[in-house]
Amino acid sequence: MDSRREDTKHHKCELQDGRDDIVTSFIDAGIFINIRRRLKRFMMISPSHPLTRFYIKSLCMFRSEEQRHLIKYYYMIHPMSMFVFVYRIYMSFILALNYFVWPIVVPYTPRHARNYLFMSIYPSYLVLIIVSFITGFPERNVHTIMMNPKSVSRAYLKSHFSTDVLSLVPPIIRFLTNKGVLNKKDVRLRTLRWVLPMLMYCRYNYFLETLKEVRLYTGFSNYLFLVIKSILNLISFIVVLTTIVYRILREFSVYKNKTAGEFAASVVQVVMMVSHGFHSSELLSDKLISILLVLCGFVIHLLVLVYTMEIWYKFYSCENMQNTVYDAVDAFIKYKALPVGKRKQIFLYLNFKYQRKFYKESTIVRITSDALRREVLVRISRESTQRVILFNRLPESILEKLRAGLSCEIYMPGDVIIKAGMLGRSMFFILAGTVVVKTPQGKEVCYLRDGAHFGEISLVVNVARVATVVVVTPCQVFRLNRRQFLSVVRHYPDLLRQIHTQALERYADTTTLHTDEPELTDRSELIQVIDPDVENRAPE
């Protein structure tokens, strides 16, 4: 990466780049120019909006979308602007008041206080109707952003326009009733006054989508979001049932003295199937309501089960996949009648590789680019390659090419990585685990752990191995082959000659070490290393 930056350090790009702020080209005169520009940017597409990254894949597409908005649909509001995001949060707060506060507060609040408490709900709905006509929307089926005013108006008229308008009727009815134009005792009028506000629940999906956008914006946990959404759905369902039962049964004299709290407790008891509540009169409507509540309770129990299974499946999906793989491996072992020791070794390998988080490596390789995989490999192996003495004279650009050619391998306890007397054609870097270096006679020389390396002499010198390396604990290593090394370094003959000289000196020192080293009997002497370079460098 550093070499690429050096190559372009003195480069002067001749490509014509667009202006960073396109708004200044459209708003360049008039009063309050800075305020108008900020307001326009606030209503244009923003990279901070949580949905922008799903529809706009590049900076060029982002600039094109800005130009399309300003040139063709200047007076429309972009659906992925921060204005829309902030307004949706405000409107969701108003809807939450209507869904969870209004049904509870209304029965216990005097009429004059009720009017002041919910004064902001109906004007907010009026603003929502106006904003919906001038705000575009993402077309999920074709993955585009619709900004055409006719298409936006047509889509809104077909969806929420009628329910939004009917939700504004209750304050008009209340105003006409207070003026004496309408009769307060009219049953149909009273029914409309509590039925029409229930139409606001048609916007419940709007409320949930806004919560999802907030989760994406804040990085909130998806599992916790599913729990909160399930609880909100359950509460909303019970609130709607309680409101309907309360408004219907209050028309009968038998229930005139019952409070809203008693109705709510009775509905919850019947829905949860723990009691029949106080619905024990001989009225046909009361019996029908009891049957309806029992059926609704059955539906709620099913919904709770479905939500629980969804959360459980999402939370434990990786573990479930791992258990499936383990069961398949176990069945294979039994079918092949493998010994117990081999079975333990196989499961030890699986546990070490996946760390109880199973993933499909072929899928990851297929969906990621070659450049990204090389970058990950370079980042992981950077520290290990910097410790190799033979690589000290190599520039960073060559080291990056060597890191990109590494291959990952996993060994289990008892596996022999290299054996004394065999010709060496590769070196190894320990990413995780512990190995022991032994002489041809079986004497332990030292232990190598995370970040250590061994076998580097075989990259440039065609000699036999003078030590055996045996795995002690499950070990993950990177292998660098001689062919890969020479294909990168052959373009630098002077460096290759220096590395060859250092390798011969290193080989001579290693041979002397094995012939002159005294016998080690205490195991603590094998683990304790005075020079840190000794632990990270094994005899060849």
Automatic annotation (TrEMBL):
InterPro entries: cNMP-bd_dom (IPR000595), cNMP-bd_dom_sf (IPR018490), K/Na_HCN_channel (IPR051413), RmlC-like_jellyroll (IPR014710). Residues 390-506 form the Cyclic nucleotide-binding domain. Gene3D superfamilies: Helix hairpin bin (1.10.287.630), Jelly Rolls (2.60.120.10). One of its GO terms (cellular component) is HCN channel complex. GO terms for molecular function: voltage-gated potassium channel activity. PROSITE patterns: CNMP_BINDING_3 (PS50042). GO terms for biological process: regulation of membrane depolarization; sodium ion transmembrane transport. The chain crosses the membrane at residues 73-96, 116-137, 223-249, 291-313. Signal peptide: none annotated. Pfam families: cNMP_binding. Keywords: Membrane, Transmembrane, Transmembrane helix. It comes from the Eukaryota. This is Potassium/sodium hyperpolarization-activated cyclic nucleotide-gated channel 1-like. It comes from Sitophilus oryzae (Rice weevil). The gene is LOC115889234.
